[in-house]
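[step 3/7] fold_predict: job queued, chain A
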Amino acid sequence: MIFAIRFLPRFKMGKNKKITISMNYILFDGSARNQLLPFTYTRPVADIRVGILTIREKWEKMLGYTTSTVTEDYLIDKFPMIEMEQNIFINASILPTENLVNRIQNLSENKALFINDEPLAFFAKEDEEVDFKTFDVLEYTCDDILRIENTWDIFKLNGEAIKRDFKLLTTDRESQLIPEKTVAFNKDQIFIEEGAVLPLCSLNANDGPIYIGKDSEIMEGSMIRGPFALCENATIKMGAKIYGATTIGPHSKVGGEVNNCVIFGYSNKGHDGFLGNSVLGEWCNLGADTNNSNLKNNYAEVRLWDYETEGFEKTGLQFCGLMMGDHSKCGINTMFNTGTVIGVSSNIFGSGFPRNFIPSFSWGGSAGMITYKTNKAFEVAEVVMSRRDIAFTEVDVQILEHVFEETSKWRKG
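[step 4/7] structure written:
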């Protein structure tokens, strides 16, 4: 197997910057990328959030270095690769552990670490052709690996990921005090960052840790069970019922009933309604009383849309809900069936259950779908992002235009 350090399609160097330094760490998408669509339409695998942190944030904290990315060509203006004289490439679908990081940091010239016949990490000099037949290839056989290979792994492995991140973020640190009128169980497993507000709520960490991020808020009457992560500047609305293992990403707002979900960030489920065993990307919004099914009436295994095979494939799961890509939204009283996949920048509304695969840039509901024109979608994205003081840039436009073209084959009108 030869990697020309333009590698395989997933390893194209693209537009890169060259800097002289002793060592450099680069996270590559690897073979899992297509199984993580629609979330990887708009980000590298490294920027998926699972647990408290994104995969990139985990690696950077444990390595003690910033990282760059090898990803799809159309993403590299936003997520550029930085090449240096000596580089270690790391498979971004793998979550770091102390043991794995130590093994990777000790890699040197002509050394590679594999897992199940796939490169986990390897050393490469600038512009080097990498032929693993000439490498000293070691198989990583430790049982501490967590790998995000499919979209459902994001919620399925979220509990263990929260526990690992909790330890990483809180060891040798002191939590802010739990408010006097907040009910707390297993207080040693509750960590509150500076600026968090949580009056008159219930925190139960008996089944896993609870992490409350900086400047976040849990409004009165909310009931939280761990494992749970509320990230920086996120909000839990009054009377919410949140079951583990759930992560609410930065600047998100969540109310109603939530069970074993991951919300990446800047997304809202601000009202009553149930969301279970689901993943929401960034800039999503669920209308009031939106509900999803996470269990089939016949208790059968859930199938999900597979972007590679262009059909519905087995997940091995009995509980699996909604996968919603960035910038997608739905109106009030929307109902989603078990195992629904929604692409990027779709708008769903109306009565009845829409299809359980909704392509990117779709507009409509159970009565039918038409194409959501990019000019209209971009107007909404600009308004939504400006409310959080974030610019909708020309680079963002180019990424979404690429997604629009790439996914056109699945839209009918």
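[step 5/7] annotate
Helices lie at 55-63, 98-105, 153-156, 158-170, 374-386, 394-406.
The CA atoms of residues 282 and 360 lie 14 Å apart.
exit 0
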